[in-house]
Amino acid sequence: MSRVRCPCLWQGSLLLLAAVATAEAQYPASPRSPTRSTTSVVGQLPLNDSASAAPKTGVLRQLVCRGGEGVQITVQQDPSPRNPAQVAVSLSYRRNSRPAGSAYEQLEPGACSWNQLGNGVPAEAGIVHFDLDRQGAEEIPDPATLPVYLGDPRHYWVFYVDDVTQISGSHGAYGGRFRVDSTLTRPRKPSATALRRERLRCRGGAGLAFNRRARQGPNLFGMTLRYPVASTAAGPVGTGLQPGTCAWADRTDARAEPGRIRFTTAGNAQLKQKQSGSAVDTSATAAERWPDVHTIPAYMTDPAHLWTFTVSLADPDSARQHHAWLPSIAEQIASQPPASASPTLQPEGPAGAKPPGGSGTSVSFPGASPGGERYTPGEGAPSFNPSA
User: Fold this and answer.
1) 156 pLDDT exceeds 80?
2) Alpha carbon 218 to its chain's center
3) What strands, in cross-sheet order, belong to the sheet with 197-203?
4) Mean of the pLDDT values across residues 348-376?
5) What pLDDT does 351 receive?
6) Which residues pair with 94 in a beta bridge?
């Protein structure tokens, strides 16, 4: 019986070789090949993509950028929608005025190109989206160090970018190695001002705008308060605040108020009462006892009401704590001006001398006449009732 050989294996090999040849023809090898990619391949999702819409994809192109003044890197979103462990950034560039050359030797400083030979490929978009680590190292770029590296025309960067979405899932130094001065990547010691915590005081009024953000957990929501900045510091009891404004309690050596504050609060602080059929507090001061996304905005419509947020000056628009603020007795006393000093009694005659005859010391007692009564030792004194 003769054997019939299956042509499937060698036909599959031919198809694979043909695909490789096509890819090599589309992306010819360059003498200046990129070193290892500094980021992992991430999903090809546009920055503002909705879950229902499928992202469009195009042709993957090799975009090479040369350092220079025309290159601008901007942080777009933190965290990145493509990789929560990184930040989304964009690089804006100008197109090269001519084909870049087989080894990109014609690439001008500050320009990027995916057109090496002028063979009719689409024009570059002028922007590319990609992700970077928040905190890099000497050999790992981040949003602070990559612009420094690409400020030098001797440095090149390569992106493998989708020509429709302009998103690069893989990128790295081209024809060289990324490395920056260790002083740029060394963790900076925070200053005393950056570590300082300050109180943001807000007074109710029409200028305050509350917006609900995403759910933060069971019955928890994020909120953002946008506020006009008061002309003066709030002071110990908020006397520096105009209605509908906020300010630091103390502006000494503090950065300017950012005009917004993010915080987290309950979605319904009286949920258990509502579920059990108990009475729900709907008064105008309910936020003092039951702060949530409903009671706080209602409470802060009244200029007589105050709210306080505790923040770190290193992150001045994010609250660590917050609550209704009712200045305490101690705070109110501290805000009072000092009492005037009592007049000093001037002795008559030299120290230790006996007072003139008939001139005893006048002492006022409760219930005594306004002028006081003269006290003479041994002759009794006006009665004093402690219970009075």
Assistant:
1) yes
2) 24
3) 209-217, 220-226, 260-266, 315-324, 306-312, 197-203, 246-248
4) 50
5) 54
6) 111
